[in-house]
Amino acid sequence: MATATRDARLYVRADSEEKARIEHAAKLARQNVSDFIRDAVEDRAEEVIASQEYTLLDQASFEALAQALDHPITPSAALQEAARRPRRFIQK
């Protein structure tokens, strides 16, 4: 298996207490500070991405969704009218 070359850098500023806490945690984890920080940031990145890009459902909710997709209801006249109206988008 080929090994990726780590040639990109990230710079992080921390106060002395944060730095000491990170160094202590890295030592407890038996990692160097760079590996510890990279692992922590990767874990957090995956968590944020998952929270924004995936939807987790319990079994009952998933089954209700699957049922609704398999057997859609006929839209009411009001809903059909709303769908025909022009959309207004507001950019924040």
Tell me what the structure shows.
It is elongated and about 65 Å long. Helix 1 crosses helix 2. It has one domain. The chain has 92 residues and is mainly α. It is built from four helices and no strands.
What number of structural domains do the residues give? 1
Tell me the helix content. Answer: 55-70%
Indicate the mean pLDDT. 92
Which sequence of SSEs, written as H and E, runs from N to C?
A: HHHH
- Calculate the terminal CA-CA distance, rounded to whole Å: 46 Å
Unreliable spans: none
What radius of gyration results from the CA coordinates?
24 Å
Would you count the extended β strands for me? 0
Q: Please state the overall shape, judged from the principal axes of the Cα atoms.
A: elongated
Give the key terms.
elongated, 92 residues, single chain, mainly alpha
